[in-house]
Amino acid sequence: MEKYNSVFILLLLLNVLTLCTCISLKSLYLDQSNRNNDLVLNCNFQLDSDQQFQGMEMRLKNKYYYFVDSGSLKEHYESSVIDSSRVIEHSPLYNTTTKYGNVRNVISSASVSNDFDCLIYFSAGGVPGFNQSSRDFVPDDRSIQTTLYVYNQVRGTYKVGDDVSVHCDYRLKAKDFLFDRRVYKDNKLFYRYVNKDQKYFIAQSGVDNVRLDSDANNTLRITINPNVGANSETGGRYKCQVNYVTPDGLDMNSTHESTLQLAGFKTILPVKLN
Ligand SMILES: *[C@@H]1O[C@H](CO)[C@@H](O)[C@H](O)[C@H]1NC(C)=O
Ligand SMILES: *[C@@H]1O[C@H](CO)[C@@H](O)[C@H](O)[C@H]1NC(C)=O
Ligand SMILES: *[C@@H]1O[C@H](CO)[C@@H](O)[C@H](O)[C@H]1NC(C)=O
Ligand SMILES: *[C@@H]1O[C@H](CO)[C@@H](O)[C@H](O)[C@H]1NC(C)=O
């Protein structure tokens, strides 16, 4: 029985430890603005489907001056931090069932200051005791862009023989693990880049060869048919994809597509012969 208990505690600890490094709210943002001489604070937060809201605090210099009990929705003030009479407007908009909340405070005679923050308490996957401050929330600013260049100029059209290159610009979160980058033409993979020793090319229509120009600063740059230039089949939909693993171990990818067209290419209408 004792053995069973310690194994259970160890598993629980491991679970909590692994959760702690990666659990964060879906979004959390404290908006601060001035209205006459008053400070308007808007805390917006969103929870993931497996997270439960447990409480929130509005804080000044790491001390709460206002909080709402998540059960009774009763408001509380800590007047030693900010006198309750200075919180001239307040509205908590959330309940324990919704995944989205907004808390608005208007504080008299205050100005925009970085000393304010919003702290959310929550449970995740049934484990209670998590909290997150609007200060620590890192927004998801992952992005990817496919840009097509003709002779180093951003273009959507080309002529046979032109120097065409594809740039994949992407941004991941600092703790993401970058797995590989892929480039597709008309949804067919032609280039896969893991690192300088692991790169793979598969010819596709209009793409007989590629040259790797650079892999630095979150940009992968390749030139299509480097020796002869683009041919009449090179036009099409180019798609960059970045494959990565999130800190909580999920395989993810981001993609973006851009189109390249042969210049002056028109649909040839049937000529009427008399
Ligand atoms: C929670 O709030 C949402 C809208 O914000 C509302 O539709 C829902 O009925 C509320 N649930 C409870 C239990 O009050
Ligand atoms: C928030 O959680 C961290 C990590 O569990 C803990 O160290 C900290 O005391 C908590 N902060 C508050 C204000 O409860
Ligand atoms: C990457 O960015 C740094 C700083 O902006 C710059 O000095 C460097 O030349 C860039 N490298 C490449 C290959 O573009
Ligand atoms: C990219 O993600 C989508 C779902 O968003 C998935 O269907 C697809 O298989 C992923 N592709 C790769 C190469 O992992």
From TrEMBL:
Protein name: Ig-like domain-containing protein
Keyword Signal carried by entry: yes
Keyword Signal (UniProt): yes
Keywords: Signal
Leader sequence residues: 1-22
